[in-house]
Structures are given as C-alpha cells and as structure tokens.
Design goal:
Elements: E1 5-7, H1 8-13, H2 16-32, E2 35-39, H3 45-59, H4 63-66, E3 79-81, E4 102-106, H5 117-121, H6 135-160, E5 178-184, E6 198-201, E7 207-212, E8 219-223, E9 226-229, E10 237-241, H7 243-248, E11 258-260, E12 269-276, E13 283-284, E14 296-297, H8 298-307
Parallel strand pairs: 1-2
Antiparallel strand pairs: 2-10, 3-4, 4-5, 5-12, 6-11, 7-10, 7-12, 8-9, 8-11, 13-14
The structure holds 2-oxoglutaric acid (AKG) and fe (ii) ion.
Length: 311
C-alpha cells in the first residue's frame, strides 16, 4: 500500500491558506489510515547512520553479552528483551505464541526535578546501556532527535485538529517516550500461522516514529479487514497514531492495527521505533468534551499496557 505522504518542513514553512490546506491534509490522513510517510523531518543522516551502527553492533553480540543488559528485575521496561519474551497481541487480549524478535529498549535520558514515585519506579528507571564503544552517544543523539521531531509533529497535529498549535505543549513537556531497537532474526522453513514477528497490536501512546530497515518488508497495516504491506522510501519515517491520540480525538483519528508478519525463509530484519508518550501526569480526555473515553493519566495507562505483553 502506498501510504499518504506528509512533508513536515513544507507545513512549517507554509502560511495562510497553504498552511491550513496542509493541516487539513494531515487531518484527513489521521482519520483515514492513521499511518503516513514523513518527509521533511530534518533528522541528520549522521544521527540515523549512528543509531543503525549501534543497533547492528548490539544485536551481533552473543546472547550472554546481551544478557548483561537485560532488565534488572521482572517488569522493568528497559534493556535487552531476548527472543520469545513478548507477545504484542496480548495487549489486545489475544493469546498467541510469543513474537519472533528481540529488542533493546531505552527510556528518557534525564529525570526531571519533581517526579511521581511510581514514575520513578517505572519509566525513569535507568537504561542499562551496553558496554559497546559509541553505542550510548549514538543512542542519545537519536533519542533526542526523535523527541524534537515528535514535538514538531504534535504541533502539526494540533493544527490538523483545528486547535492552537501549542495545545499539546504541556503533553510534550517531560515526555516518557521510549526508543526500541528491534531485531527479527531470519525465519525458518516453517511458519506457525499464529506466530508473528510482532503480533497484531495498536501502539499505546500519541504517535510512533518508525524507521524500518530499507529493503526489508514485513510491516503490515490492517485496512478494511485485510493485511496490507507497507514500505517506506529511504530517507523517510513511518508515523502512526497511537491509542492516546484516538482517545483524545474520540476515535476521529484511528490507532490502526498493525503487525510484522512472519513467513518462511525471511532474511533478518531490523527496525527502530520511537514511542512518544506524554508526561506521566498528563491527563488524556476527549478534546470534544464527550464521554467517549474516561480520562486516563499517561503514565499509569502506559504501565498497564506494558505489563500485559510480557510472557
Ligand atoms: O518493526 C516494525 O516495523 C514495527 C514494530 C511495531 O509495530 C512495534 O514495535 O510497535
Ligand atoms: Fe507498533
């Protein structure tokens, strides 16, 4: 499926009717598919090359090395989550075999001055970084670039919803976003129909910035009951709406079901997913004042979702 494209730099540079048109186009995409290709993102190539190098070097290590940065206790969110440890479909209440993947996960780079004790015990746990030369600076540079990009997209989202462009500023202050490097090993000769590389799920937060490995397919989005293949041209990101944006917009915007399909004899694939999540205590309630969804607090909501997927 060719996803619709949104040029962020062009939106930011536009004035008057052109800006309103770009915002209306973005609104239509978010109502229709909830997935888009982002151009004009401005993330330097060196930052992207750096994180790819770091991810390749990390996953190439033997399992016992990777295990040194496993989450320090059950339920801790960051570090290396080894193969067959997570089933994303479980977040939708669907029982499947575990996903065919491993991941390295990291949280906010700094702890703000005043944080809730639960936040400190969950999303502000330190990320256990591997002892690989260059890994940590490359990770931090990419994480920072993603935070900045997410804040810019949230301004465009506000415009698309006909709100003041700073409407989500409070949500992007002290965000508790997570960056996840994913590795899906090459698949075997036989695939179990129920087992995917990442089971069908929606993302939990406001928006996800995904960078799939070029020339490796597998990401599929559900459209009209069918699974449709998605690819991203090199130099772009795939952006999708998460559940919090659907809650905020009373389902006017869609948090679309997606998965990474497993088929026999696939080569290994990697991706980088940045999950933007408002600050721990940000309340998300329908912007139209309706009772489509009860209000939730960003942090506890995320924690509940996260805990549903561990095996
Ligand atoms: O690897 C991908 O392309 C998508 C991963 C994904 O959807 C997720 O981790 O939430
Ligand atoms: Fe996802």
């Amino acid at each position: 499926m060719a996803l619709a494209t949104f040029d962020l730099a062009a939106f930011e540079a536009a004035h008057g009717a052109a800006r309103a048109q770009a915002a209306a186009d973005l609104d239509a995409i978010c109502r229709d598919s909830g997935f888009l290709i982002l151009e004009g993102h401005g993330v330097p190539e060196a930052v992207i090359d750096g994180i790819w190098q770091a991810a390749h070097a990390f996953f190439a290590q033997p399992a016992d090395q990777k295990a040194r940065v496993a989450p320090p206790h059950p339920g801790a969110p960051y570090g290396w989550i080894g193969p067959l440890k997570e089933a994303l479909a479980a977040s939708k209440g669907v029982e499947t075999p575990p996903d065919l993947k491993e991941s390295f996960n990291g949280g906010p780079l700094a702890v703000p001055d005043q944080v809730h004790a639960d936040a400190l015990a969950f999303c502000y746990q330190p990320t256990p970084f591997p002892n690989l030369e260059g890994f940590r600076p490359a990770w931090a540079a990419y994480y920072t670039a993603m935070e900045d990009l997410a804040a810019r997209i949230m301004r465009a989202f506000a415009a698309a919803l006909g709100l003041p462009e700073d409407r989500f500023n409070v949500a992007v202050k002290d965000p508790i976003s997570a960056l996840r490097a994913l590795h899906y090993p090459a698949t075997a000769a036989v695939a179990d129909a129920d087992q995917q590389r990442a089971g069908a799920h929606t993302d939990y937060g406001t928006l996800t910035i995904l960078l799939p490995q070029a020339d490796r397919g597998g990401l599929q989005v559900q459209q009209g009951g069918d699974w449709v293949d998605v690819t991203a041209p090199e130099g772009t990101f795939v952006i999708n709406i998460g559940d919090l944006m659907a809650r905020w917009t009373s389902d006017a915007w869609v948090s679309t079901l997606h998965r990474v399909v497993a088929k026999p004899h696939q080569p290994a694939r990697k991706s980088l997913a940045f999950f933007h999540q408002p600050g721990w205590e940000v309340e998300v309630a329908p912007l139209d004042g309706s009772d489509t969804y009860p209000p939730v607090l960003s942090g506890p909501y995320l924690m509940g979702k996260f805990q549903s997927t561990g095996t």
